Amino acid sequence: MPRRPPASSTSSPAPSSRRSPCPVACALDLFGDRWTLLVIRDLFLGRSRFKDFTASPEGIPTNLLSDRLERLTESGLISRVPLEGGKRFAYELTEKGKALKPVLLAMKEWGLRWEEGTRADLLNQS
Amino acid sequence: MPRRPPASSTSSPAPSSRRSPCPVACALDLFGDRWTLLVIRDLFLGRSRFKDFTASPEGIPTNLLSDRLERLTESGLISRVPLEGGKRFAYELTEKGKALKPVLLAMKEWGLRWEEGTRADLLNQS
DNA sequence: TTTTTTCACTTGCAAAGTGCAAGTAAAATT
DNA sequence: AATTTTACTTGCACTTTGCAAGTGAAAAAA
Predict the structure, then answer these.
(1) Per-residue pLDDT for A7 more than 70?
(2) How far is A13 from chain B (nearest CA, A)?
(3) Is the pLDDT of residue B121 over 80?
(4) Pick from B35, B104, B114: CB nearest A96
(5) Residue A10: pLDDT band with limits 50, 70, 90
(6) Does residue A28 form part of some domain?
(7) Alpha carbon A39 to its chain's center
């Protein structure tokens, strides 16, 4: 995945790396890979620290997690919040990131219906 | 992306390559990349031939298109339908593939809302 | 306070995937 | 019969992925 510039509180400026003006293509430029949406999912599940993400059952490699957290921050889907005094951070969804809930819910429903043996322990409506 | 076995008309058996029982992770195992959902989008837009997909504005490389069509067929999201007599094929969404409409619509809405300059010429409700 | 453990990464490397260009053979068209 | 189009495949350079190991700071334990 190629890299991209930051984001505003309303809507992000079109980066030159955009493949087309299609909103689906555009979305895939931001999270079209095997890991990014799982990090978003974890954030919806209340996980917020680096180790929380690595503890998820899929076992994201730590170098990829670093990379994804950085990209998500750059594209304004998440923000880093400094933890008590120290140099450590928690991550949280921005409004833009929270707006992905319908996407995740649709994928969850699809998976539950069409892929045998899947179960959604945690990701609820609301 | 690692490869996987075929699919039934109800729900697909769990492949050993599955990363977790999470329906989202499972879905991403099938279409978690930058191109697959664009092929699905094109099919929803009525495109069905190899050249139709290559003609989309994102310009998928032909080797990747071949690969994606094969994987989508294997995983039961699309099927190859033989064209009049010859050895050529058209591609169409299966029921399982059509069931991805809510996912694409959610992504479309998200892109339109949060990514400046995107526009959805074609992908409609229904 | 010192030691140990945990956390949040980074680095190195082999393997796999991507993207581009060029090639090919069959089908369709002229 | 010759030309063009279609649906691919192949080759190759480059990038990304996944695994393991290493590192330094912070937190916890002794």
Answers:
(1) no
(2) 5
(3) no
(4) B114
(5) confident
(6) yes
(7) 5
CB B56 within 8 A of CB B42: yes
> Which chain B residues contact residue A111 at CB under 8 A?
22-24, 26-27
Radius of gyration of chain B (CA): 15
Answer yes or no: do B12 and A116 touch at CB < 8 A.
yes
Q: Which two tokens mark A81?
A: 């919040």
Residue A60 lies in a domain: yes
Domain of residue B95 covers: 23-114
Asked if B71 and B3 count as a contact pair (C-beta separation under 8 A), the reply is yes
Question: Shortest Cα distance from B101 to chain A (angstroms)?
Answer: 9
**How does DSSP classify residue A12?**
B
ipTM: 0.92
**Contact criterion met (CB < 8 Å) for B12 and A41:** no
Looking up tokens 């729900």 gives: B11
* In a domain? residue B107: yes
Closest residue, CA to C1' of C7: A51
B26: pLDDT strictly greater than 70: yes
The total of structural domains in chain A comes to 1
Residues B35-50: tens digit of each pLDDT: 999 999 999 999 999 9
Residue A124: CB atoms within 10 A of its CB come to 10
CATH code for the domain of A104:
1.10.10.10
Does some domain include residue B85? yes
Sign of CA pseudo-dihedral B18, A76, A17, A25:
positive
CA A109 to chain centre: 18
B57 and A22 in contact by Cβ < 8 A?
yes
Residue A92, phi then psi, degrees to nearest 5: -145, 155
